[in-house]
Amino acid sequence: MELPERPFISVIVATLNRTYYLEKCLRAILANTYDEYEIIIIDQGNVNQTKELIHSRFSNTGRIRYMHTSTIGLSYARNLGWKNARGEIIAFIDDDAIPVSGWLKAYAEVFSEVEPTPAVVGGKIEPVWEVPKPKWYPKEREFLLATYDIGDEIKPFPELELPIGANFAALRKIIEGFGGFDDRVGFNESRKKSMIAGEDTLIGLRAREAGYEIYYQPEAKVFHHISAKKLSKRYFLRRHLWEGVTHIVLEDCRNNLDNRKLRGILLWHIRNILKEGMLMYKSVFLEKESGPPKFMLHLSMVGVSIGICIKSAELLLNKKYRV
Fold first, then answer.
1. pLDDT score for 4
2. CA 221 – CA 122 distance, rounded (Å)
3. Contact at 8 Å (CB) between 19 and 53?
4. Residues above pLDDT 90, as percent of the chain
5. Nearest of 140, 143, 110, 138 to residue 125 by alpha carbon
6. 89 Cβ partners below 8 Å, 6+ apart?
7. 242 pLDDT more than 50
8. Where would a tag sit more exposed on the chain, N or C end, judged by fewer CB atoms within 10 A?
9. % of the chain exceeding 70 in pLDDT
């Protein structure tokens, strides 16, 4: 797909009663050096605080379009956004992320200059720790906090990695061709006990399977706020368990499962729980110098495998698939 030298970009910001973060995010977007863009706010809040913020602080910009929906869910919000967008490129940013001034220009350059044109591009995400990061937190698992940095060079995404939803962009035609974001996945505040994510991952997986290019653009950088709540051990364990559940749900969305495969997955991850459990024991009693991060890394793997086992067993017991 050929794009103009300066393609129009629609920025989608889904938000839910977080005006403190949203105001900083919007001011940073509006300070961009690129001028071919619009911002679409999808407000899922049940009060008027976001609408009042837009009208009182940003009514004179001419670039912001405000939309409200009572339907909760990140996938729904992002679908509502791109369906009402005017841009050839759709950029997504979390409301608690702050883009650098060259953010939109960097995305425009990759889509218009790289050949063949990428379907999806992800940017660098640097953390803003609202409290000091705990010493026990393993660096290998920071990506679940929506941070991402693989250097300062534009390049294709590594084979086993995909852009993170806090900061990525995609061609509108690609999103539309895949039917948008699947509402079976994606964070949803109305499901209080669920942390199923992955709406961004599913778009990336489908693009890769279809043979499209996926690129990393470090200059499309944002600073992402990491709240104290996300740095507790309880959240850490819960997030990893739901990461395992999400993995199976994504495979289900892609029609990649049958009973035989589910049984194989279940058995492999039962063995992995035992293996990681032994490594946890070893890290505590035999490798004391390795410290808490190594123990928590093994514990996170246990959590992921438990989540995978729970969802796999649920699908098997519900007899959803034929043998």
1. 79
2. 9
3. yes
4. 86
5. 143
6. 3, 7, 8, 9, 10, 107, 108, 111, 169, 170, 171, 172
7. yes
8. C
9. 96
Question: Which range has the worst mean pLDDT, 44-53, 179-188, 219-228, 288-297?
Answer: 288-297
Across 40-52, average pLDDT: 91
Integer Cα distance of 46 and 74 in angstroms: 15
Q: Which two tokens stand for residue 122?
A: 């992800």
**Taking a C-beta distance cutoff of 8 angstroms, is the pair 176, 62 a contact?**
no
Q: Cα separation of 174 and 177, whole Å?
A: 5
Residues 64-122: tens digit of each pLDDT:
999 999 999 999 999 999 999 999 999 999 999 999 999 999 999 999 999 999 999 99
Which amino acid appears at position 96 of this protein? D
Crossing angle of helices 291-317 and 233-253, in 10° steps, is 40
**HSE (CB half, 13 Å, CA atoms) of 233?**
8
Evaluate if residue 291 carries a pLDDT over 70.
no
Q: Are the C-beta atoms of 130 and 108 separated by less than 8 Å?
A: no
Alpha carbon distance 91, 144 (integer Å): 20
Residue 322's pLDDT is 46
CB 305 within 8 A of CB 244: yes
Q: How many residues does the chain have?
A: 323
Enter the pTM of the model.
Answer: 0.93
